[in-house]
Amino acid sequence: MNLEAGAPIGIFDSGIGGLTVAHAIKELLPDEQLIYFGDTAHLPYGDKSTAAIQAYSVKIADFLIRKGCKVIVVACNSASASANELLKEYTASRAKVINVIDPIVDELAQNGSTGQVGVIGTRRTIDSRVYSKKVLSRSPGCQVHELAAPLLVPMIEEGFLHNKVSQDILQNYLGDKIFDNISSLVLGCTHYPLIGEEIRRFFDNRVKIINSSQVTARALATYLKEQSMLASTQERNDIFYVSDYTLTFEHQAKRFFGEPVVLKEYRLWE
Questions:
Q1: Which of the residues 37, 56, 139, 259 has the least number of beta carbons within 10 Å of its own beta carbon?
Q2: Total structural domains in the chain?
Q3: Annotated catalytic residue, options 61, 126, 189, 242
Q4: Active site annotation includes 189
Q5: Is 76 a catalytic residue?
């Protein structure tokens, strides 16, 4: 790849969840320019078909490549599960693709994990069984317990956080008996760190919560260092695109980054 170190990092998700990844990247790599794409016109990805997610992902990847991005971070578990191989083939030598699943699998393997691991995610992610397959291929001593939690993404997108509604929904999912003996829980959707504290309190801090946002940011930093592609200073502002403007996205982006953000609308099929 003949890309300059100062080229931006592209990040995409179906909505606000990927902002958790963008924020983690910005904290770890403050000199990097970020171009974020929230596909708000098609959220959530978790209830879409594989073909639909692949079509959205390729269209967004093409947009980010045209913006000159040196890396594309797939900040969505559903897209990582459904479109990762297609994206790598599509982008080929034009940009590196980093998803949010493989860094989790790598971390579990590096830590020699042999316990019982829980995973919560969207229907698309859980139905793919991508975590079970990848974790067990690297850490055969693990037992992986996966559960779809389809109400969590719309709950978060609609702002039902830290109240009785969110507590009742979390109780329904996290109270499932398959999680009775887990030692760690993978937040298999980038929206979930937004309710990470509530999840920790539910388990009374007895369970290690694995946040894909932080793990993915570290994986990105490692790659950029190995390729000598770290930016030395940020010369341009971060830019946030959405496929359909929503106040929720704008408010959440401002909350994450502590200042007004440059928010633009770009409709994928116009």
A1: 259
A2: 2
A3: 189
A4: yes
A5: yes
